[in-house]
Amino acid sequence: MRFAVTRACGGGGGRARVGALYIGGCTTAPIETPSLLISTRKGLPTFVSRDHLATLPTPDSLLLHVSPLHFLDCPSSKTISNIGGLHRMLGLHEHFFVAAPRDSLESLPESEGTNKLGASFETPCGRRLVIKPSAYVEKIASLKPNLWASMADEVPAWVSEKRNKTSVDRTLRWLDECLALDPASGKTMLGVVVGGSNIEERKHCAIEVATRNVPGFWIGGFGLGENVEERSALLNAVTDNLPEEKVRFISGLSLPEEVLQGVASGIDLFDSTYIYHLTLGGFALIFPFKILDHNNLDFQLDDTVGDRTKINLRATIYRKDTTPIVANCSCFTCQNHTRAYINHLLNVHEMLAHILLEIHNTHHYLGFFRAMREAIKGGKFDLFRHRFIESRRIHLTSAVLCS
Fold first, then answer.
1. What is the pTM of this model?
2. CATH 3.20.20.105 residue spans of the chain
3. Which residues are annotated as a binding site?
């Protein structure tokens, strides 16, 4: 894997940048960043099958986020190694797997069970295990992801300063242990930056991790209760102390507004747990992302049952709606099915509803990232971010006044 920054926004766009991921052995064009990593359960999206992955836009959809925690129970490391790793096991030879020790689909990190020996994780079968760096590296070696993050002691924002400092020290120690145990000497490893809601600890951790010989960084500990107003300062404290030429991946920021905040601070890769939770609830994304084409913020959207970002397709109002989820959307779902059909599938509890919703939501969110990249290239990211947030604020204000 090789990463290069191709365009930095500068000026009003802050630290936003466009980069390119060059994947070794991949025949497609390089993947541009900022980009979305599609969250998976054991290597595949929760509802989208391997065949339907091919309907998503490429090369954007080739990035998959896998959690090693999903493999703690089964299959065993030996079995996965005998198969040949994730790519051969799933038949996804062209895809790019990024492994990080966080299962945002099912559970958040458990800081209280973590100790000096290892991190505490909940397995898919409901057991709680303390995983040592040696066992973690063994699992990674069997999975053979393209990139992987070292072990981290993630803590929520409300822990004491002493516990927060301990998490930084442990994470740095585990990083060194993983580097020593890794047969590839860290050539595909992401160094982990933690520090909770303390700016000084974030800076300290970033400075220390930047001295290690790793090709990129995973920024952990976000989405765990930090103050939204303080988040930009925390992000900047990290990115200002990391090498610009190396890729940056973050977990815990997946809402559109959060992604915009991360991109403004110079983050390159984001997980997509937002899509999973939307799909599970029967919601479909509808927000416009070609907002720089408009001269005002009065977009013509469906205001009946939604918040100008998403609509709830379980609602009765869509029972006879024969239009696609989003007009002119080129995804498989919108090209072949209607809101009424998905409403029916949801209300009779057919799994196909979630399959079609996840295809659309993933396709739509990939389009959002593509629009952000174009805005950065054109030096208009700050305008893009302002218009997107302002359109949401105007709608929410109108909804409050009407109620």
1. 0.91
2. 2-272
3. 329, 331, 334, 360
